[in-house]
Amino acid sequence: MRLNVIRVFLVLFALSVAAPHVHAAVTPSEFITEAVGELAAKLDGRHDELADDPDALYALINEVLLPRFDRKTAAQQVLARNWRSATEAQRSRFIDAFYSVLVQRYADGVLDFEPDRIKVLPFRGDAEKRTVAVKTTVDLEDGTNVSVNYTLINKKPGWMMFDVTIEGVSYIRNFRTEFEAEIKSTSLEAVIVRLEEEAGGEEQVAEVESE
Predict the structure, then answer these.
(1) In the chain, where are the structural domains located?
(2) How many CB atoms lie within 10 A of CB 24?
(3) Which homologous superfamily is 5-206 in?
(4) What is the pTM of this model?
(5) CB–CB of 24/152 below 8 Å?
(6) Beta strands in the chain (DSSP E)
């Protein structure tokens, strides 16, 4: 079966929003396991409400995701060499706009979250490393079993998520390819402006404070 990466990502990106802001002593696998229960609790009894109120859904995601998703690392990895040539102002705007677009594009995936379909595998790596991958499997409705890796980074507050790899396809690499081509044909500034417009304009994006 040909995997629809974007469709699966709608569900899997939702998992990261519930990840508790915990000390690094918690193992990477525990970070994800606790996230499953946390997200299920936050969604309990609110599916219809959130489905009818996008603003409430965005607010829920921002409440739990902003302190736990490493927006700067994700943005830096996505821009790659273009990050080095970007001004500080451009970096800040890209971080905010990229995050806002992610939330708006994939917010509906939160409502598709089914914790019983996710199995977190035992962590076999070195938890002392700066970045680690937590392996999970997800059972889709058609019976397909999908492998999913969450890439975490160890920072002072604890583990934070910045990438999801589905069947070997990284969302960071996907966006990097997309933006590299667009920047080459236009400019980094043009890409940032487009993202700001997609997110609802600079005023709305500015509400999400950069790290």
Answers:
(1) 5-206
(2) 17
(3) Tgt2/MlaC (3.10.450.710)
(4) 0.80
(5) no
(6) 118-120, 131-139, 145-155, 158-166, 169-170
